């Protein structure tokens, strides 16, 4: 009668050993997993851990890029930006600027680009310039310069892409969570290398819309705990307004939430240094004040 008890005892002991072994295995597996993640996080560079998830839109054939450096990519994928002379560039940008509002008249175009020439002389040089611009645009598929209802406009359809025209469409009634808009803006400041006063109105118009859109985008990204792209939104605003306090707030808070308090302090210190330089007074809000603020 004792033998069944011994058998049960052995069975119970075996199960206890199995359970103990499985428990030890699970504990060791969790430990090594945590150790692996810790070592891996240390091996990944700062850029890899904190770079924006949304990368600048890539160059491809049949494109006109105005954000960052001006680039024109032909249908064969060749960069033909050097084909634009100063006058061709002025003509292209002015027509693009007015295309979304119905176009620009011949008289208005001449008065902006050739203000010192009379109507007859400006007519001749305008004709030559427009023909040369058509030759440049003919290197791309889907982009055309047309004269309609007494005004010049540039049309863009598949497979062509113009970041300016696309961005202007996106900025109208802007809705946050727009990855395409961020990928366009991530290329750089609008007409980054252009200091021609002829483009000031064009710059002011789009930059005002960009700041408003990025404020909404930063709030949306922050609320969704998308720290990397919250920082990207702040960077876009800083390119336009280096002392934008809302951008500072989102950037500091996002860096802090992503675990990089050091970078948050660096950005804050850069901001207050520029503030002191521009206004000859200390910035009124401390780092702690900003980093603890819930909304901006």
SSE order and pairing:
Elements: H1 2-43, H2 46-50, E1 63-65, E2 71-73, H3 86-99, E3 104-105, H4 106-113, H5 119-137, E4 143-148, E5 151-156, E6 161-162, H6 163-171, H7 179-185, H8 200-223, H9 227-240, H10 245-257, H11 261-279, H12 287-292
Parallel strand pairs: 1-6
Antiparallel strand pairs: 1-2, 3-5, 4-5
Helix pairs in contact: 3-5, 4-5, 8-9, 8-10, 9-10, 10-11
Search tags:
single chain; 6 strands; 7% strand; three-stranded antiparallel sheet; 296 residues; mainly alpha
Structural features, described:
The protein is mainly α and 296 residues long. The longest helix is centred in the first third of the chain and has 42 residues, at 2-43. It is elongated. The model is unreliable at 35-51 (pLDDT under 50). The protein has helices spanning 2-43, 46-50, 86-99, 106-113, 119-137, 163-171, 179-185, 200-223, 227-240, 245-257, 261-279, 287-292, and strands at residues 63-65, 71-73, 104-105, 143-148, 151-156, 161-162. It has twelve helices and six strands.
